[in-house]
């Protein structure tokens, strides 16, 4: 007992003396490595499905586009606290307790009175008036920057007045209260000399409406730097960068990327400018003017470029790829990701939507060289041949392990995670020996957002974190997200993801926002209007579905089509459906261009963590319930991938998706778990649900008029042959039961009037389904109670005209005609005694004449 207490005390003591880590801006540091190298708690040994889980979630009032920031030792209420700061597109800023999530220390909204946050619909000219890059509000988008010395948070908020005046303000907030600091806020505007797009009399003025404050803010040497791009290239616009004094909030410096040209937005998928040891800034610009007509290397217009600036925002050097015009024409702009500065070098990495990464010497960037000889290295970070679907948005991140090996990681859209070694001796990347991950991103934008954590270079602590869409294209849609953790030394080893345990789902993916890792926790922005926080704890294993009724085997749906990734099956119509014993391809009718969706249940024998494997050619995915366990999507040769999930004993819903484009077709599905060595999933543990039979009354038909004896017939859909009986009801009173096909009931001696009937089918599991009700009328003549030929005579046989002979005037009479079984055929109201019966078939009929309260009945023969 004493030893245990000592161990606990030792653990608590160690945690107490470890300094808390701050994350003060997007991607952690000025070099934008995305690496927290002071994470002393999380390791590859404890970030597992058994020990790592969602700890809490904090609701906010809108989507979070900003990376959560962590600040320790903030004095709140007389106590030192570690806070997590998040901002929403509704212009709200929150300070939460970063350790427990129990307290909201303060919340403030920065929308001026009489105004509202800017919305996507305010961008009336963006994307042809159908702007969907944002789904609603766009108030605060750029990640704030924090000064822990002065306890100040700097953030830009956008709004529009009721009179349609657009505003952007720089705010300086007190970290302890959320209150505005002196001189805050300051209205943002600027004017530069130039004849470029939107200029008036040789001046270009900052456009409050169209300029998109997308990158995170940079705080450096007492100056707050802010960058802007556009919304869907809605012009006229320019790339702007401005510097404001952090104390007075007075504007100090202004840079316009194309004063005599157009565009060149600075957006970098949300990453702030990078800063080297000498205080030079690095930004990447998108589509826009390159140089001037007579000089492509004129620094005055630098679209499609990596630009080096001094602290006064004056251009010092730049690099422009030699295919800048190709990038411009195809909207494959440079600057779709941020700039990574390789530590302890004068090298930088940046890329484009084309999927290429460029290694540049920051001391000799070389401008625009027609032969690209100023490019030290250029390589393809994507594996997708179509250049329009390989954008690199998530900025590359950096890590150095215990053996001194350095890596850079990047994960372009529609592709695989790449881990590229850096050779310190040659100052080049060993691209030939890159490690390729085994998980392919779902089809669509924007790729994965990355961060790294480790305890310095200590072995077993390096973890690469990736946030990306769970499925779907996040470009114009709000889609579900997933957080993954990989061994940073080998990204083929996934150690955890947010789909492995019940309750760990992240919610809606936050586009362009990297994970924040600090002090044993991972903080995730979401578009589900909440901050989600993960850490060490006891996960909740998934409860079984345990359906009431199952049969052996699985259900499958078979589709045909040419796919490069698993399609959205919900939007497709299967060519055929059926049941099958296991996950096999035997129902396929072609050798290529097809897909399967299998659904069923797997019987788990005991509580525990189970690993599932798919070995496939081409792509496959395996889900337990809604949890994505194995992601093996994409065009590839035979590749095995795996994933784990915590499950409780019982039957769990299992779904596997597969597509085959061409070549060899392979699908093998295995599992392992407590007491189960890795093996193909046996038929004996796979089950399919049983469809409840459905019943429909086929006779009598609705609104028919019948005699006193009726046979009720049914049509039953029973694909699994489990019908037990059918019950027949009239006015909710049981008439009778039939337990064998064709499942019908003879209802005799029915009283005249309206009747509502239903049928209920039961299966062998006791489940039931009720038919739609049918309303019909019985109107039997009751001939035994009436005197035929009383008061009315007909001359038989009748051809076309039935002539009635009567002592009464029949001009206002109601005439009803029935067949010999008493079934009503028609009603006539006519003047005179002649009735047109030409529409009746040959036979014996009964005519009923009703007039002045009297009723006369007789028979006639129709020829």
From TrEMBL:
InterPro entries linked to this entry: Ig-like_fold, PA14/GLEYA, PA14_dom, Quinoprotein_ADH-like_sf, Secre_tail, WD40/YVTN_repeat-like_dom_sf
Signal sequence interval, chain numbering: 1-19
Top-rank lineage group of the source organism: Bacteria
Entry keywords, A to Z: Signal
Coiled coil: none
Transferase among keywords: no
Segments forming domain PA14: 549-685
Name of protein: T9SS type A sorting domain-containing protein
Organism: Flavobacterium restrictum
């Amino acid at each position: 007992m004493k030893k245990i207490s000592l161990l606990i005390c030792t653990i608590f003591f160690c945690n107490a003396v470890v300094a808390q880590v701050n994350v003060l801006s997007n991607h952690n540091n000025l070099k934008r490595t995305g690496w927290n190298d002071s994470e002393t708690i999380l390791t590859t040994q404890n970030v597992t499905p058994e020990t790592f889980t969602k700890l809490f979630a904090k609701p906010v009032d809108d989507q979070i586009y900003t990376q959560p920031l962590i600040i320790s030792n903030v004095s709140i209420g007389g106590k030192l606290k570690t806070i997590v700061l998040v901002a929403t597109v509704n212009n709200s800023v929150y300070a939460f307790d970063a350790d427990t999530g129990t307290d909201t220390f303060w919340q403030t909204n920065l929308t001026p009175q009489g105004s509202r946050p800017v919305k996507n619909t305010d961008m009336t000219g963006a994307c042809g008036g159908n702007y969907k890059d944002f789904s609603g509000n766009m108030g605060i988008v750029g990640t704030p920057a924090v000064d822990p010395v002065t306890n100040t948070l700097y953030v830009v908020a956008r709004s529009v007045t009721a009179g349609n005046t657009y505003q952007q303000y720089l705010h300086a907030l007190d970290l302890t209260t959320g209150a505005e600091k002196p001189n805050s806020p300051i209205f943002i505007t600027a004017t530069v000399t130039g004849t470029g797009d939107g200029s008036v009399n040789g001046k270009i003025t900052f456009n409050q409406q169209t300029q998109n404050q997308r990158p995170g803010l940079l705080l450096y040497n007492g100056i707050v730097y802010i960058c802007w791009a556009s919304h869907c290239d809605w012009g006229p616009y320019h790339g702007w960068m401005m510097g404001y004094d952090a104390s007075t909030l007075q504007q100090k410096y202004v840079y316009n990327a194309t004063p005599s040209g157009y565009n060149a937005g600075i957006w970098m998928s949300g990453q702030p400018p990078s800063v080297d040891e000498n205080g030079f800034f690095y930004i990447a610009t998108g589509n826009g003017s390159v140089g001037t007509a007579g000089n492509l290397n004129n620094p005055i217009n630098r679209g499609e470029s990596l630009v080096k600036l001094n602290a006064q925002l004056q251009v010092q050097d730049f690099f422009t790829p030699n295919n800048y015009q190709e990038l411009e024409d195809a909207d494959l702009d440079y600057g779709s990701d941020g700039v990574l500065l390789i530590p302890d070098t004068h090298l930088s990495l940046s890329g484009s939507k084309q999927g290429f990464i460029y290694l540049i010497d920051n001391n000799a960037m070389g401008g625009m060289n027609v032969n690209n000889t100023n490019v030290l290295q250029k390589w393809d970070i994507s594996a997708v041949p179509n250049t329009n679907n390989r954008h690199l948005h998530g900025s590359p991140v950096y890590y150095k392990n215990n053996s001194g090996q350095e890596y850079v990681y990047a994960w372009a859209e529609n592709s695989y995670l790449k881990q590229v070694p850096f050779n310190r001796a040659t100052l080049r990347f060993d691209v030939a020996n890159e490690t390729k991950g085994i998980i392919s991103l779902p089809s669509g934008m924007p790729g994965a957002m990355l961060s790294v954590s480790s305890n310095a270079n200590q072995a077993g602590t390096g973890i690469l974190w990736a946030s990306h869409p769970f499925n779907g294209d996040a470009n114009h849609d709000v889609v579900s997200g997933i957080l993954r953790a990989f061994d940073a030394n080998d990204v083929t080893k996934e150690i955890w993801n947010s789909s492995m345990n019940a309750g760990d789902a992240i919610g809606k993916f936050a586009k362009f926002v990297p994970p924040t890792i600090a002090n044993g926790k991972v903080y995730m922005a979401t578009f589900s209007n909440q901050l989600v926080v993960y850490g060490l704890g006891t996960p909740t294993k998934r409860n079984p579905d345990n359906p009431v009724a199952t049969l052996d085997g699985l259900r499958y749906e078979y589709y045909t089509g040419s796919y490069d990734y698993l399609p959205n099956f919900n939007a497709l119509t299967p060519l055929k459906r059926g049941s099958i014993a296991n996950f096999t391809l035997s129902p396929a009718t072609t050798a290529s261009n097809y897909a399967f969706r299998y659904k069923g249940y797997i019987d788990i024998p005991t509580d525990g963590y189970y690993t599932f494997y798919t070995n496939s050619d081409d792509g496959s995915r395996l889900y337990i319930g809604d949890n994505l366990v194995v992601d093996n999507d994409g065009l590839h040769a035979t590749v095995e991938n795996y994933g784990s999930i915590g499950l409780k004993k019982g039957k769990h819903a299992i779904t596997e998706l597969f597509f085959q484009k061409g070549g060899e077709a392979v699908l093998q599905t295995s599992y392992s778990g407590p007491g189960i060595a890795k093996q193909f999933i046996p038929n004996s543990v796979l089950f399919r649900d049983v469809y409840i039979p459905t019943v429909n009354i086929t006779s009598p038909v609705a609104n028919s008029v019948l005699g006193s004896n009726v046979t009720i017939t049914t049509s039953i859909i029973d694909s699994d042959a489990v019908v037990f009986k059918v019950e027949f009801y009239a006015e909710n009173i049981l008439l009778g039961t039939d337990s064998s096909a064709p499942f019908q009931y003879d209802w005799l001696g029915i009283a005249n009037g309206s009747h509502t009937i239903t049928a209920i089918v039961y299966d062998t599991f006791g489940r039931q389904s009720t038919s739609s009700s049918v309303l019909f009328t019985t109107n039997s003549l009751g001939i035994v109670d009436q005197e035929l030929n009383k008061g009315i005579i007909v001359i038989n046989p009748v051809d076309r005209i039935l002539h009635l002979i009567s002592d009464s005037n029949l001009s206002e009479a109601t005439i009803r005609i029935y067949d010999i079984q008493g079934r009503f055929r028609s009603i006539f109201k006519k003047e005179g005694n002649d009735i047109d019966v030409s529409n009746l078939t040959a036979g014996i009929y009964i005519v009923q004449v009703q007039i002045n309260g009297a009723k006369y009945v007789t028979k006639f023969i129709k020829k």
